[in-house]
Backbone:
């Protein structure tokens, strides 16, 4: 599937979960600030994505992957992401606004940065890994 096709498949899920009009859902829409998502909505959306696309989305997936790539594995200090962690996330998730990844970012702030494009790219990565036979992505 192309990213455009994935977006078109994802859009109805976003409309249903978030109760927004289809016109509001754009690739660059931030789920929390633009579409009014709350943490429970993100969980619901993840379950629906898993069901629709037959992929697995693991909790703390972004964090786990960034930690694997960090020298020494220092991801956060005193509740704030380290500069190395921010750099790793910025590299691995280019679909997110790099300007939002600044010093002082807390681990708990990450969900508020997620865009529709992030989910399209996540689904694309999961489907590609599934096709290649990779179990955990």
Residues:
């Amino acid at each position: 599937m192309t990213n455009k096709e994935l977006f078109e498949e994802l859009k109805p899920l976003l409309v249903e979960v978030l109760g927004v009009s289809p016109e509001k859902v754009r690739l660059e829409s931030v789920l929390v600030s633009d579409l009014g998502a709350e943490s429970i909505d993100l969980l619901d959306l993840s379950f629906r994505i898993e069901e629709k696309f037959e992929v697995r989305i693991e909790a703390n997936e972004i964090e786990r992957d960034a930690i694997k790539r960090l020298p020494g594995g220092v991801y956060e200090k005193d509740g704030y992401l380290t500069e190395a962690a921010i750099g790793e996330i910025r590299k691995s998730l280019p679909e997110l606004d790099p300007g939002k990844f600044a010093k002082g970012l807390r681990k708990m702030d990450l969900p508020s940065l997620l865009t529709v494009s992030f989910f399209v790219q996540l689904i694309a990565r999961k489907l590609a890994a599934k096709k290649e036979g990779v179990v955990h992505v």
In short: The helical segments are 3-18, 39-53, 61-69, 83-92, 116-132.
